[in-house]
Amino acid sequence: MKNAIYGGVNAAVLTAMGPDLAPDLDRMTSHARWLLANGCNGLGVLGTTGEANSFGLHERKAILEGLVARGIPAAKLMPGTGCASLTDSVELTKHARDAGCPGVLMLPPFYYKGPSDDGLFAYFSEVVQRVGGGVAIYLYHFPQQSAVPFSLDLIGRLLKAFPGVIKGVKDSSGDYANMQAMVREFAKDGFEVYSGSDEFLQQILAEGGAGCITAASNANSHWGGIVYAKRTGPEADAAQATLTATRRAATSVPLIPGLREIIARSTGDAGWRVIRPPHLPLTAEQAEKAWAAWGAAGALPLPGMATAKAAE
């Protein structure tokens, strides 16, 4: 897809924290810089992997402001702004727009289960109207987590009602047929489809999708960048095989603490293991399993990470 705002590889960025569980913006900024220098075209911050729903409204604003103040380009950032509260979603979306972010990723209102498409349409209509433009909205389809899916019919209605505002989707369902259907139905209208699963990057690009937004990109973005640049051929195929293997390595243990463990070991910075409850750090056994799995995938040491840490 040409002219996609976030076209390419986007990491669903981990949120660094200090011992008091407060956001550690210096550590997070360092990681963001490494990602942008090692295969990432953009950064999805304050999503599932970033533990957004473990942070309050003011904390989420401070994290975004802190990254921009430390030199991470707002144009590269896609913050998550979808909340159960309509007014919180509006406030965070306006804040992201005013910070200079071109787009936001929005979960559906996830507390009440089984809402109708009419109810979801009404929710997003209110959000769009109250925000008042100036920022693209990307839908976050993750039914395993939110229990509130986006149907193709609903997406079509939103695109018709708000052309150019409802700009794309991150599909974390793991259902490639659903991603494929979204591309075939809506990409012709400039709707950007991003896979939330690393193993589908090469396929979705060939289909006409825009790229990926994934958790494992925190550590495998080097190979994602190769797939995005090359698309086809032996080098791209080998890089895609590494993406698939690292995705499986990432999900061999609880995903978020597992990625923190890989970054902690790769940087020598134990602070990356700090995580907010109800999540917990990996056990020693899990940590060894995760490290061994990434090694077996051929992804260790992470390209440039130790060098980047030493240069700070």
Automatic annotation (TrEMBL):
InterPro entries reported for this sequence: Aldolase_TIM, DapA-like
Keyword Transmembrane: no
Sorted UniProt keywords: Lyase
SUPFAM superfamilies linked: Aldolase
Pfam families hit by this protein: DHDPS
Ranges annotated as spanning the membrane: none
Record family assignment: Belongs to the DapA family.
PANTHER family the UniProt entry points to: BLR3884 PROTEIN, DIHYDRODIPICOLINATE SYNTHASE
UniProt name for this protein: Dihydrodipicolinate synthase family protein
Phylogenetic placement of the source organism: Bacteria, Pseudomonadati, Pseudomonadota, Alphaproteobacteria, Acetobacterales
